[in-house]
């Protein structure tokens, strides 16, 4: 990887001055500060009790400009920024495109299994933007894990069973009309209305709650 090559070059330059610190490089948030940057000069200056900007200048002088690095720049308080040559960027892009289906993938966790559960909307209630958000995030996490070598099991419970379905059944049978509900363009709205009505009626008559449990038990038993 280009990052590994850059790190090796910077490490060689730093080792000419001191071997006390490990070099870390990263891509800056703002591209005007180069393709990669490092704060090694500031960390090393603290250890050697030197001026960080001068230390950065000293390290920069040891960095050769070759087929990989086109430009080196030192900025306050002691960052060293690097720009890659167009040839390096072009070669890297060609390598990526030639193996695009496997780019970024890893074998480090191959054989390991993991479950990613996400979204799990209640099918008796309207979908919201929150369901979309959790679905996208969950799917993205699963994709990343697969790329890292995991065997991923995606678990999305559509209307996971619970007592609420017993309440819904009781409400439909007591105040609803299943035939009309099935013909509605948006039946979920009617299901929500009936579910809300169940709870309002249960406030006046707590025994209705028990009916919800009874119907849920029938549902679990396959009745």
UniProtKB/TrEMBL annotation:
A GO BP entry: arginyl-tRNA aminoacylation
Keyword Ligase: yes
Top-rank lineage group of the source organism: Bacteria
GO cellular component: cytoplasm
Listed InterPro entries: aa-tRNA-synth_I_CS (IPR001412), Arg-tRNA-ligase (IPR001278), Arg-tRNA-synth_N (IPR005148), Arg-tRNA-synth_N_sf (IPR036695), ArgRS_core (IPR035684), Rossmann-like_a/b/a_fold (IPR014729)
Coiled-coil residues: none
A GO term for molecular function: arginine-tRNA ligase activity
Alphabetical list of SUPFAM superfamilies matching this protein: Arginyl-tRNA synthetase (ArgRS), N-terminal 'additional' domain, Nucleotidylyl transferase
PROSITE patterns, A to Z: AA_TRNA_LIGASE_I
Keywords carried by this UniProt record: Aminoacyl-tRNA synthetase, ATP-binding, Ligase, Nucleotide-binding, Protein biosynthesis
Positions of the Arginyl tRNA synthetase N-terminal domain: 4-84
SMART domains: Arg_tRNA_synt_N
Family, as annotated: Belongs to the class-I aminoacyl-tRNA synthetase family.
Name the UniProt record assigns to this protein: Arginine--tRNA ligase
Source organism: Candidatus Roizmanbacteria bacterium RIFCSPLOWO2_02_FULL_41_9
